[in-house]
Amino acid sequence: MRNMILLAVVGVMVLNCGVAHAAKTWDDMSWWGNTGAKPEPKADSKERTGCWWLPVEAAKNDKDGELWGNRGIVFHAWKKPVVEKKVVPPPPQGMRGHGDPGPIILNNVLFDFGKAVLKAEGKAEADKLAASLKKYNHDTVTIEGHASSEGDEAYNTALGLRRAEAVKKYMVESGIAPERIKTVSFGEWQPAVPNDVEANRKLNRRAEFKLKMEN
User: Residue 191 sits in which domain range?
Assistant: First the structure.
């Protein structure tokens, strides 16, 4: 009988050792508190490092096989993960498709009354456009010629085309292939401002650029 009792005590000791050993060899508990289940763990006190976690709302957790809840343990050391903000560097200037509004800002080319002669300030605008077209080989441009309202309608339409062609001729001489430049005339029918005073009519004697940018 005594031997049987002794064996029973030894058996209990072995069993207890097995349980203690199992407790020390739990798998990685780094998931604890980080599954997204709500609410998140709460600190026990300022003096103690452990937290209580009693989640009631699960979150989708496809990356591991752990339980989303407390798994029979509610007190554990835990620190809220710090989410690092990823800093995205700005794209290089001039790259298309990255929020770049375009390589250049162009002003209208203005002409004197009844003239289709490109002036120095008009050449400066054409030079900026030519530089852009050389940089972006697939871009094309339409040059729109315009006139003020003085004179005959047919004359103003022809004058608008002569103005557009004058700009094109200058750009072709600057090295731009003629097939990349289209010209069109709107004559007096698309004024930039009302033709009511001479200061406005000067702004309507113009050529405009419509740049088509390709990525």
Answer: 109-212
